[in-house]
Amino acid sequence: MVAEASERLVRPQTLAGWLCRPALALSLPAMAVLVGLGLAPLALIAIWSFWSFDPATYWIKPELTFAAYRALFETGRFPVFVRTIGLAGVTAVFCTILAFPAAAVIGLMSGPRRAAILVVLFTIPFFTSALIRSFAWRLVLGRTGIVNEVLVAVGVVDQPIEWLLFSNFAVAIGMIAAYLPFAVMPMVLVLARIELSVIRASGDLGAGFWTTLRRIVLPLSLPGVIAGFLFVFVVALGTSTEIQLLGGAGDSSIAIMINDVMRVVNFPLAFAIATSVVVLMSVLILLANRWLGLSRMFEDLGT
Amino acid sequence: MKERVELGSSTALALTRRQLLQRTTLGAGALAIGALGLPRTLRAARQINFWASATLDIGNDWQAFTKETGVDVAFTDNGNDPGPVVAKLAAGNANDIYDVGGLQGGSEKELAKQGLIAPWDTSKIPNYGTIWQWAKDIPYLSYQGKIYGIPAVINADSMIALQDKVGKVDSYGVVFDPKLKGKVAMEDAWINSAVFTAIYLKNSENEKIAEPGNLTRDELGLVMEFLIKKKKDGQFRTFWNGWEQGVQLVANQEVWVMTGWEPIVYAARERGINAYYAVPKEGYEGWANNTILLKGAVDRGLSDTAHVFANGMLAGYYGCKLGTMRGYVVPTDNNGKYAGTHPDAFDPAKVKALADHVKDKFAGKVYWQNTRPDNFQLYEEWWQKLRNA
């Protein structure tokens, strides 16, 4: 009797039965939003990326072609693709390295009150727009900016350093400062779930700080570290503001390329670039899950 | 007051085009309809929906314009980028909503070809005759002998220079001078930067360039290869974009010379920077923002009202108000006459000084900016190559 009831709970026989399952019913609105506003437009974009572009009318026709994907390798687009991925990767690596100690302090060493305060502090960069944040860096890193003025005043350099602004260095600084919180948050969530008794046990068994960090904390927090890396990587991959405001003359990125081709109404090419990014990100997430156990973030880490 | 792009017509694909444009412009369309408040049929017969660059808006002073002309004006910002504007006219619902457009010059021919705008009947615009002749002569205002664009605002651009750093300069050559490597900038837009470069190469390097604002395929290649080489050499500190960036670059002395808009000089001076607007021997880049009559207005029987509106823009009040608010010049002496008869509202000396300043620029060599050159798709391709170089 109990087994029968349990079977009914697990396997409803009708649609009404499915809808009666509270968990499923509760998740339906979110799933509808995800499919309607997220996946469906992405599918359309992917389909339209294979349509042909008519330069006479500047419009698209439902004729299958790979022209937009071939155009990815023209006009210097592919190097920009690679450069953006590289820049996003560097940003994500630095953010991950910088975020881990901060997340450890918040997640492992702070009580709820202090942890909440620290988390709020990390969200401060989001209180203003990306444009304002990047523009502020111009005033800090510029020829007459604070950094150069201090360096010249204390005699470290005779002339202002030119490459502090409008360079890859400036872009990296702007992006790391902006996206660091994206790496901190998932790490905090994972680190906070590690039972302190596990760490104490490690100490009781003779492990020092570094051994405990390497053999206990890092393995247990790895899914959060990977998630933090991916969050930063995804956001950095799609940004244009920091590159436009802090990069060198005419520096480009994937987002800027999309904007450029949208201005000439070349929708298939814009969609092809966007689709390529989505595919790349999907592959990365799948690989991260397969090789680094991203799904472990949702497991119990206490024991 | 800049920018570009294009979209054509296709009867066979009208539904597809419309669907896609509607998706991409849904938000803007909804906002526009919301702003207008009432369906077209319920609006006053003497109301004109003016869809133009935000800089042409005189805000609450449209009420005074209405008193002067009898035409009620509902203003909507069109974003200033000709690309989306043309797209919304060709495949969106802009012609169903708006009556008169205001657009950076160059798209008139394309819009007229597609039947999206109608020619003006200048006999119904008495003030048309008062427009300065050289402004009426802008080549892209007419198509097949009919006038499609009326210059509403006109000016000429060159470059901003820092007196204390570079002294007095009178050639665009300074922008490309290796001695100023890393201390110059150009705008991140082919619409201006390609034209400035072409003007320089034509006049100072004796390159065979017929019309800097409308380059042939070979001319464009020459100009853009030159820019790409300069970029690779590290000549440019950056390519700037937008008012704030332009002002910041000059005010913080990040660059010593920069092609750009004259108001940036005034903003820099307010911050104590000794900047000036150069008078290049190669000539200025002239530009105009033009009033166009949308075909939808004609279909709705609003053509006469639109003509009264266009006439009103040239009558003096609008020119005085725009000059006071933004320093822009409507190319007619009616501004001065209006200020003379309304000294309590406008300073006649200031109105005259503004007009004279622009006239002086156009007394010399000027090459017109064109938002829609014949090879405009190629311009975009080359500009992307420059970015990606």
Relevant terms:
heterodimer, A: mainly alpha, 14 helices, B: 389 residues, alpha/beta, two-stranded antiparallel sheet, 17% strand
SSE inventory with pairings:
The complex is a heterodimer of chains A (303) and B (389).
Chain A: H1 2-10, H2 15-20, H3 22-48, E1 52-54, E2 59-61, H4 67-71, H5 77-107, H6 112-123, H7 130-141, H8 146-153, H9 168-191, H10 196-204, H11 209-237, H12 241-246, H13 254-263, H14 267-292
Helix pairs in contact in A: 3-14, 5-9, 5-11, 9-11, 10-11, 11-14, 13-14
Chain B: H1 14-24, H2 26-36, E1 47-52, H3 62-69, E2 72-77, H4 82-90, H5 94-97, E3 100-104, H6 108-113, E4 117-118, H7 133-136, E5 142-143, E6 146-147, E7 150-162, H8 163-166, E8 184-187, H9 190-204, H10 217-232, E9 236-240, H11 243-251, E10 257-260, H12 263-270, E11 275-277, E12 284-294, H13 295-299, H14 303-313, H15 317-326, H16 334-341, H17 348-363, E13 366-368, H18 376-388
Parallel strand pairs in B: 1-2, 1-3, 8-9, 8-10, 12-13
Antiparallel strand pairs in B: 3-12, 4-12, 5-6, 7-10, 7-11, 7-12
Helix pairs in contact in B: 9-10, 10-18, 11-12, 15-16, 16-17
Give structural notes.
Chain A has 303 residues and is mainly α. Chain A has 14 helices and two strands; from the N terminus they run H-H-H-E-E-H-H-H-H-H-H-H-H-H-H-H. Chain A is flat. Mean pLDDT of chain A is 86; it is low at 1-9. By secondary structure, chain B is an alpha/beta fold. In chain B, helix 9 (190-204) crosses helix 10 (217-232), helix 10 runs parallel beside helix 18 (376-388) and helix 16 (334-341) runs antiparallel to helix 17 (348-363). The chains are: A mainly alpha (303), B alpha/beta (389). Chains A and B meet through strand 2, helix 5, helix 7 and helix 13 of A and helix 1, strand 9, helix 11 and helix 18 of B.
